[in-house]
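Entry type: protein chain
Record version: 2
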Amino acid sequence: MNNGVPIVPVLVGSARMPQPAQLPESLKNLAFLNAAPVDTGRDFHQHMERLLRGIDQILPDRRAASLAAIGSREEAVAPAAPTAAAAGCDADMADFAVFRDAPFAPELVVIPAGEFMMGSTEEEEGGYPDERPQHRVAIGQHFALGRHPVTFDEYDRFCEAEHHEKPDDKGWGRGYRPVINVSRQDAKNYISWLSQETGQVYRLPSEAEWEYACRAGTTSRYSFGEEITPDRGNYADSRLGCTSEVGAYPANPWGLHDMHGNVWEWVEDDWHGNYRGAPPNGSAWKETGLGFNPRRCVLRGGSWVDRWSDCRCARRGWYSIDRRSITAGFRVARTLS
């Protein structure tokens, strides 16, 4: 901070970055630093290795000096770790860093550029024809994606500022539960307001970006393996009968919560019945031909009411563009320079 000692916040498990008002005056700026997510489950060691690699990349000279003085890698972990760049310095953001642009804005995770196989194979159990043909997609630039779906707290702030009617929470509660009963246009209205308020370029993710981030470098049916169980996500077998607070279940390997279940999430793409002709660069697949009426819009991720097969990485669905549902919400994406 001010004394020249670099700091990086570490978010353990489902911990959230504090609001500036929750911190002493001397620590308020911590709320706007990038944070490193660390899972406390079976991915703990992988997350810690990623954190250490990030430290090596950000401050190699300081790291080397620390190692020389202390004598071992293990002992060098104990002091406060260095931070990545503050939010707003997009070019300096480390992959998988967690940040937000304002106290009222959603937490974001930096998603690296890369390639993946999108969709399901003919052999995948629970797969559907609209998930094929499986095809390679290249995400050419890093981008940021919401750490979890937009919450009622976050969306209600927009409604109050713009004098919009707040969506019904079905009596389940608001706060950290994902916002529901929002159409795709409602989601885009929120995103336009958020972009204006923060001065950053927010948007819905493309369908390819969503699946790429959901898979998080894996090739299995779920980001944690071939099976889903009630301790991994909120879906029909969880028997909750409603949404759950975001972050209540373990994050995927890239630090994203609720990618499998809880609520379906609107993405930018118009619906197509298969992937023949899909963009290979990860951009949203839109139709602009003469007379085209994009009434069907893609959602991803499954929800609290859906069976296991609807919560797979490759699963896709659609609603009409103006539909509001107790099973659907959204998460934001942000373009990084």
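Comment: Residues 10-99 form one domain.
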